[in-house]
């Protein structure tokens, strides 16, 4: 199975010049834990996570919208990436090795998708090559 088979798309993203506070609000509302940072042409510049934003906003707690840090100042630049043809095993190893919850999928320098841990779990749970579907045992004391 390849990254293109499990990746989420279209991808929510932010621009490098976006407000860190506005981006934090977007993450809270969307339920995402991190989001790619791209320019107007879709070229990947980095990834900004909840942890990046908490750190940045803790240092500027009184900043109002439009003031305070920008995403480009707090993002993680040059994140680990994969191409659309990467094997999902490679993607899982990247998430585990980097501690990231998602891996951007890039083709010709442009962001085309994101593989999240949830995407990997969904693929594993529905994969027929892993054998029969697992059953969940009844809780102790249950029927």
TrEMBL record:
Entry keyword annotation includes Transmembrane helix: no
Keyword tRNA processing carried by entry: no
Pfam families named among the record's database cross-references: CBS (PF00571)
Domain CBS: from-to ranges: 7-64, 75-133
InterPro entries: CBS_dom (IPR000644), Diverse_CBS-Domain (IPR051257)
Keyword entries, A-Z: CBS domain
PROSITE patterns, alphabetized: CBS
Entry superkingdom: Bacteria
Protein name: CBS domain-containing protein
UniProt lineage: Bacteria, Bacillati, Actinomycetota, Actinomycetes, Pseudonocardiales
């Amino acid at each position: 199975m390849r990254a293109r088979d499990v990746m989420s798309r279209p991808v929510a993203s932010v621009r490098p010049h976006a407000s860190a506070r506005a981006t934090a609000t977007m993450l809270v509302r969307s339920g995402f834990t991190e989001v790619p940072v791209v320019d107007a042409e879709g070229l990947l510049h980095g990834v900004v996570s909840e942890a990046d934003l908490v750190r940045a906003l803790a240092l500027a707690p009184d900043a109002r919208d439009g003031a305070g840090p920008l995403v480009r100042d707090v993002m993680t630049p040059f994140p680990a990436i994969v191409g659309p043809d990467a094997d999902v095993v490679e993607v899982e190893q990247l998430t585990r090795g980097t501690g990231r919850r998602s891996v951007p999928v890039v083709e010709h320098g442009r962001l085309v998708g994101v593989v999240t841990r949830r995407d990997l779990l969904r693929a594993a749970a529905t994969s027929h090559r892993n054998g029969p579907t697992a059953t969940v045992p009844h809780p102790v004391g249950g029927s």
